Amino acid sequence: MSVLLRSGLGPLCAVARAAIPFIWRGKYFSSGNEPAENPVTPMLRHLMYKIKSTGPITVAEYMKEVLTNPAKGYYVYRDMLGEKGDFITSPEISQIFGELLGIWFISEWMATGKSTAFQLVELGPGRGTLVGDILRVFTQLGSVLKNCDISVHLVEVSQKLSEIQALTLTEEKVPLERNAGSPVYMKGVTKSGIPISWYRDLHDVPKGYSFYLAHEFFDVLPVHKFQKTPQGWREVFVDIDPQVSDKLRFVLAPSATPAEAFIQHDETRDHVEVCPDAGVIIEELSQRIALTGGAALVADYGHDGTKTDTFRGFCDHKLHDVLIAPGTADLTADVDFSYLRRMAQGKVASLGPIKQHTFLKNMGIDVRLKVLLDKSNEPSVRQQLLQGYDMLMNPKKMGERFNFFALLPHQRLQGGSYQRNARQSKPFASVVAGFSELAWQ
Ligand code: SAH
């Protein structure tokens, strides 16, 4: 890999990345209490009607409705990423991010015996920028991946973003096949000739040897919130504020609720957030990886079971009160990696979470940056590369707030042979790129 990095991965990508700095979502913000206008959005009207009909709703239901309601959800009909959107993500900042992740997948593919085929599956692909950068690496390393059958599978609920992904990734001369009623709602061919399909749910992605990727995906899944009280744990609900018209407020449930079962018996915090949907997805990924091999790479902001109230909103690159103008702002909560680890336990091995700056450093970001800088005479491009590097790596920016976490078959770490159909039966190496310091030559 060091040779590949030194010789570069082809020409400098001409894709203009976001001018920096813009806010990234990993910033901590306690919800509520921000003075702000409260326009009556269609989503607010819908939620008030719902609460009036059936009573207060859990924070998880609130988050799910606001973000992914098929008719009015925040994610469904808009492009919220980038300079003109509400927040910026690592792949939108620097091409190097996706390139290094592409190298990670190839490195795992090689370490597990170079299977004759694999699926690249991304959960929540945003604008498709990350998968585009990964596929560029696959093309540049065509001689390594030669004769390997690759297919791309995107799990995306947003109609708008899936259209942008198709524009970014597919060959326009090959018409897209669309079938809104089918679990595979869109199909096409990427610019490099790889079959690509879209799904709303991971369950519908074909099972088989796969590499899974989730970048800033788990943080948008709905969380339940709980507060410790003298009477025990009480779930936080969203209700209509009786004092102010058209305003929502948080209330505590008067008695225990079923979701309380998710709280650990020895929990010491006084406020916790739990994300059952994340658990379901990790269990599904773990079962698939245990059965057919492959790996999952999860990158997100989060903690290891230590933080309390992290639920927050983002709008126009600013923090936003989560209960104001629902449907116009992104809602997010830090990922609890200790919970993800528990959900994977017994099925697959997990690595991390480790900090983004450590992971990218281990993957050779400094070497890749130098290659790109050496190749570029354009001062503005050089400045963009350096600023992008700083944003991704600086511990005060994204470097420490974002984490990498991986799921791998147990055999991968034990050095046993796993992949039966592999072209090589070489035992797995125990070093997993990114999670251990590699000797870059
Ligand atoms: N990974 C991208 C985008 C992150 S934003 C990046 O880093 O730039 C979150 C993404 O997850 C969006 O594409 C959003 O539409 C998608 N998403 C949100 N909830 C989802 C769900 N329940 N199932 C599938 N995709 C979802």
CATH T-level topology of the largest domain: Rossmann fold
Sum up the overall morphology in one term: globular
How far apart the termini lie comes to 10 Å
- The CATH architecture designation of the largest domain is 3-Layer(aba) Sandwich
Unreliable stretches (pLDDT < 50, length at least 5) are 1-8, 10-15, 27-35, 417-422
- Biggest sheet architecture: 10 strands, mixed
The total count of helices amounts to 15
| Percent strand | 15-25%
**Residues in helices, as a percent range:** 25-40%
Which class of the largest domain in CATH terms?
Answer: Alpha Beta
From the alpha carbons, calculate the radius of gyration and give it in angstroms: 22 Å
The total count of strands amounts to: 18
Number of domains: 2
- Structural class, from helix and strand content? alpha/beta
- Report the bound ligands by name, code or SMILES: S-adenosyl-L-homocysteine
Give the overall average pLDDT: 89
Protein name: Protein arginine methyltransferase NDUFAF7
Keywords: Methyltransferase, Mitochondrion, Transferase, Transit peptide
Catalytic activity: L-arginyl-[protein] + 2 S-adenosyl-L-methionine = N(omega),N(omega)'-dimethyl-L-arginyl-[protein] + 2 S-adenosyl-L-homocysteine + 2 H(+)
Family: Belongs to the NDUFAF7 family.
Structure description:
This protein is α/β, with parallel strands linked by helices and 441 residues long. The chain folds into two domains: 41-67 and 223-269, no CATH class; 88-221 and 274-410, Rossmann fold, CATH 3.40.50. Helices cover 33% and strands 22% of the residues. The chain contains 15 helices and 18 strands. The chain has helices spanning 2-7, 42-54, 59-68, 90-93, 95-111, 129-140, 142-145, 159-169, 276-292, 337-344, 356-362, 365-375, 379-393, 395-401, 410-414, and strands at 57-58, 117-123, 149-155, 177-178, 184-189, 195-199, 210-215, 224-229, 232-240, 248-252, 271-274, 294-303, 312-315, 318-320, 330-332, 335-336, 349-355, 402-408. Strands 2, 3, 4, 5, 6, 7, 12, 16, 17 and 18 form a ten-stranded mixed beta sheet that branches. Strands 1, 8, 9, 10 and 11 form a five-stranded antiparallel beta sheet that branches. Strand 4 and strand 5 (184-189) form a beta hairpin. Helix 5 (95-111) crosses helix 6. It is globular, with a radius of gyration of 22 Å. Mean pLDDT is 89; it is low at 1-8, 10-15, 27-35 and 417-422. Bound molecules: S-adenosyl-L-homocysteine (SAH). The site of S-adenosyl-L-homocysteine (SAH) has 20 residues, from helix 3 and helix 4. GO terms for molecular function: enzyme binding; protein-arginine omega-N symmetric methyltransferase activity. Belongs to the NDUFAF7 family.
